[in-house]
Amino acid sequence: MSAYPRRIVCLTEETTETLYRLGAGDLVVGVSGYTARPPEARQKPKVSAFINARFDKIAALEPDLILAFSDLQADIAAELIRRGYNVVTFNQRSVAEILQMIRMLGGLIGKQPEAEALASELERGLDVIRESSRRFARRPRVYFEEWDDPLISGICWVDELVEIAGGDTLFPALRSASLARDRIVQPDAVRDAAPEVIVASWCGKKVRPARIAERPGWADVPAVRDGHIYEIKSTYILQPGPASLTEGVKQIHDILSRVAKPH
Fold first, then answer.
1. CA within 20 to 30 Å of 37's CA: 10, 30, 131, 263, which one?
2. Does the pLDDT value for residue 216 go beyond 80?
């Protein structure tokens, strides 16, 4: 028996991307159907969506480790455990926890030095974005919308990345709520907060800026009035892994730089 896992199934895309970034893509034998990064990972057998999985496909791959994410995959994880598999379920909800997940995953596969190096690289990248945002003339008010019906504000790591990128979020008191239902906001609350920028990312659904602009009473919201409504694909910002700490935060920073002109 190998000292470390050799056949890993990833039920969400952030662990897949992390393994590839650690030089361990060859260990991945099955992935989520939502996997987009890196592109070559999409060639691996797809065994799950987000809240369901094909247990027969997983069994055929003979994994010695299965990686899951959050309470939303708790039922899948429980069934896999009952079937005798080793399952590790991460639950990272903040930037610090994403970095911790990377370091923990490195330890699981015997690549702790590589994981430390990757986490440090990502931290340095965030510092570069943070320093760049200090050159903004001001910090725009940002409403990040995770879903449109009902309106759901950004989860913790997204709110943190908005702040690193140079913006001030509208509902910081809600960010620590891990469940989406606990981050529901009323349209009037968003309107009254007068965001200067609206960034939307609806997982599995294309953002329609015109629909946002047409919401009753929103015509005078600065972001609507000035045409600052943007979409970031969910794979870049709602994936609690390397993608959000690189491409996701960069896209937010680029958007805010159009509103808050650098000195």
1. 131
2. yes
Whole-angstrom Cα distance, residue 104 to residue 96? 12
Report domain extents, the chain.
1-91, 126-259
What six digits make up the tokens of 59? 């069994």
Q: Do 1-91 and 126-259 fold alike per CATH?
A: yes
Average pLDDT on 171-190 reads: 93
Beta-strand (E) ranges in 160-228?
Answer: 168-169, 197-200
Which residue, among 102, 202, 58, 262, has the nearest Cα to 253 in the 3D structure? 262
Tell me the per-residue pLDDT of 25-41, one tens digit each, with 9 for 90 and over: 999 999 999 999 999 99
Residues in CB range of 97: below 8 A, 6 or more apart: 91, 157, 240
Dump pLDDT digits (tens) for 193-206. Answer: 999 999 999 987 89
Q: Are 158 and 144 in contact (CB under 8 A)?
A: yes
Angle, CA 199 vertex, CA 195 and CA 203 arms, to 5°: 140
- Model pLDDT for residues 50-69, shown as the tens digit of each residue: 899 999 999 999 999 999 99
Q: Tell me the three state secondary structure of residue 169.
A: strand
Q: What's the CA gap between 13 and 193, in Å, rounded?
A: 34
Only one residue has tokens 């958007």, namely 255
| CATH architecture assigned to 126-259 | 3-Layer(aba) Sandwich (3.40)
- What would you report as the CA-atom Rg of the chain, rounded to the nearest whole angstrom? 19
Q: What is the mean pLDDT of the chain?
A: 96
